[in-house]
Amino acid sequence: MLPALLGWHSTVVQSGSMEPHISAGDVVLAAEFGATQQVPVGGVVQYTSPAEAEPSGVEKTRLHRIVAENPDGTFVTAGDANVEVDSTPLDRGQITGQARLLVPMVGLPGLWLGSGNLAALSWWSLLTLFAVLVAVFGDRPSKLEDEDQDDDDKAEEDGDDLPPNAHRSRRWKTGAALAIMAVLAALIMATTTAFSSAAFTASTANASNTFGTAADWTPPTITLNSPGTTVRASVALTAEASDAETGIRSVAIQYLPPNGAWTTLCTTTSAPYKCQWNTASVPDGAYGLRAIATDNSGLVTTTSPTQTTVANTFSIGLEAPLDIVRGNVALAATLNSPGATAYAVRVEYSLEGANKWTTLCQMPSSPYSCSWPTGSFANDAYDLRAVAVAGGISTYSDTTTDILVDNLAPTITMNDPGTPLRGTSTFAAVAADAHSGVAQVQIQYARTGTSTWTPLCSITESPYSCRYNTTALASASYSFRAVATDEAGNSTTSAPIANRLVDNTVSSVSLDDPGTYLTGETTLSASANSTSGVGSVRIQSSPAGTNTWITRCTLAATPYSCSWDTRTVADGLYDFRAILTDAVGKETISASVTSRRVDNSPLRGADVQTVNGTGTAGKIDAGDTLSFTYSQQVNLASVTPGWAGADLPVTLRLRDGNVQGLGTGNSADIVDIQRPGSTVNLGSVNTKGNFAKTKKTVTFSATMRASTITTAGVPKTVVTVTLGAPTSGAGSLRASTTTSAMIWTPLSSVTSTTGVASSVAPVIESGTPDRDF
């Protein structure tokens, strides 16, 4: 009872998955788990396993050990007796207590009662009763009791009755024994609040245990048919569900009102899985729809939400054009529930945020459509809305904001690649666009005397350059030019660079750039050719600027590449070159690749990851997380002054790659973390995606916290930033469709717990490239 007074609660263990430390029938006392308490990696916790994670489809209480933390903030659990970890990750919110005290075997009676083992329960009851009776009646009489007994014996010899006190003493002892039994039973049953079903998973190291598989491990399949983008009155909602193993038990169809919770519209148990939705019973607005299928084994599948708009009262909508437009743009308005009323419809425009509206076009009858001649407008950002007028009453659509008009083509200049061109050469151009930004630069070539231009390479990020192996071209005279295309689709072609000779009839050699930062095993590669044949290629390095060359490998055949362990040299800047020796012994030296940094600092960025919350995939919004993982534990005060890792309010800043001073382009928006009045030394992340509109900046309120994960026995610090609502620029957000890997550039201001500065080598996001956020 004392632990109960301290706020602890107890759990009877039902299986042997935690043996040899915890066995079936043991009672584990657990303390409440606070909202700010650090999750005990390596400790035993009590947690709730949701129905969808259980083969039976029923929520259960489990008691397992946390063995690791995942990069996404979830945790890996396992039973001590299990060979493999649990299949479902554990979320912090599922933890209901941390194990504090083990009471062996005391929960066996409750376990026997719950499992119907009446034989064991009966033996325990008899033995316990016997023990209590011995304790009460089996004590040795005191001297006073001996004297009382002598008096009683004498009274009996004299024919007298026993004194009344003797009978009362015996009744009192018998009652006390029964009361103790009742209290023991009550304590066992009343103070045990849960049964832990910490079942075995996969295989087990305890050979004496056996287990079987469920009849159905495959969840059902289900799809919900969209009723359309706009609905009114009564509409049929239809789902299609199937389960090849145990069959469908039920299908529930639900709707999500604005700022509300999912509400079940109907539950059906047989096909067709269909119900009518009387939309007149709910307010107009945007709604989510989903269907949930449950099979006869209890497995559940939920569809992704489908969006629709309820419009039972009259409204007008404007179909939004693209974020960036040029030329003549088609505009269309839609009237919802107009009835028999005749409406005059027009489209109005205003400079972004000015709220000064001017008629753009009139649409006297259905279909309500017109063309917007953006060529007669200044290149700027505009807001649009549609207006329906009847009987002197005007109804306005939602405003479509920040539509960028861009009819101005970009500028571009082709750099002279030089002549003659041999081996792998660099081709580059300089491009700029004042409004929507450069989307792509394509470099083209044409053989002198012809007018057929052929793409040589396409580049989407500044600097607009590429390396091209000219041995793919026949030896001849060529012209080169560049074509720049902006996000609106405007394009400009540079003046050609004419009469540049490609001549690969002599020996040529070039060294591929190994990268700005070199760590661990690095590949060094060269391209070489000679009309007389290549004898060998040597790849060399030198401390930057010293011209002290050391051969790292000698290669006799293609590919001319080798692996170099950078840990064999001191950290610092190095130059690289390749030397071709042809078949007749003549040497050709490549141009040097200079000032490449070897950096094998023990503290460095290990990974950067994002997780989408509950919002739109590919769009940065509230609930998303951004995690920075270091290779070791760091001094958190070096991340931001005075920080120990607890939740800290910060600001996440998202900048379009075309913002002044960045110059990374449309598909390389930049994210960094800020803190009012102080610094956050997490560096910056190139998202490699287009999440903000052109030249826009968006800020979010956010919370930053630190945690520790252990990988291969090495503890590492993970800094996780969880986004809140946008604090500025919300209208400038957009969903990125790019599948790519982010690049995080750490800062050397962050140090390890032993004072080692972090490497500033960029970190590429691990895993399969995705849309992020």
Description:
The protein folds into 6 domains: 212 residues, Ribbon (Umud Fragment, subunit A); 90 residues, Immunoglobulin-like, CATH 2.60.40.10; 91 residues, Immunoglobulins (Immunoglobulin-like); 92 residues, Sandwich (Immunoglobulin-like), CATH 2.60.40.10; 91 residues, Immunoglobulin-like, CATH 2.60.40; 160 residues, no CATH class. It contains 6 helices and 51 strands. A 9-stranded antiparallel β-sheet has the order 43-44-49-48-45-46-47-50-51, with no helix packed on it. α2 packs antiparallel against α3. It is globular, with a radius of gyration of 38 Å. This is Signal peptidase I. Keywords: Membrane, Transmembrane, Transmembrane helix. InterPro entries: Ig-like_fold, LexA/Signal_pep-like_sf, Peptidase_S26.
- What count of structural domains? 6
Structural class: mainly beta
Name the shape in a single word: globular
Number of strands: 51
Give the termini separation.
49 Å
Radius of gyration: 38 Å
Instruction: Say what the CATH topology of the largest domain is.
Output: Umud Fragment, subunit A
Q: Low-confidence parts lasting 5 or more residues at pLDDT below 50?
A: 153-160, 198-205
Q: At the fourth CATH level, what is the homologous superfamily of the largest domain?
A: Umud Fragment, subunit A
**Mean pLDDT over the residues:** 87
Strand percentage lies at 35-45%
CATH architecture classification of the largest domain: Ribbon
Observed structural traits:
Ig-like_fold, seven-stranded mixed sheet, Umud Fragment, subunit A, transmembrane, 773 residues, Signal peptidase I, 6 helices, mainly beta, nine-stranded antiparallel sheet, Peptidase_S26, Immunoglobulin-like, 6 domains, transmembrane helix
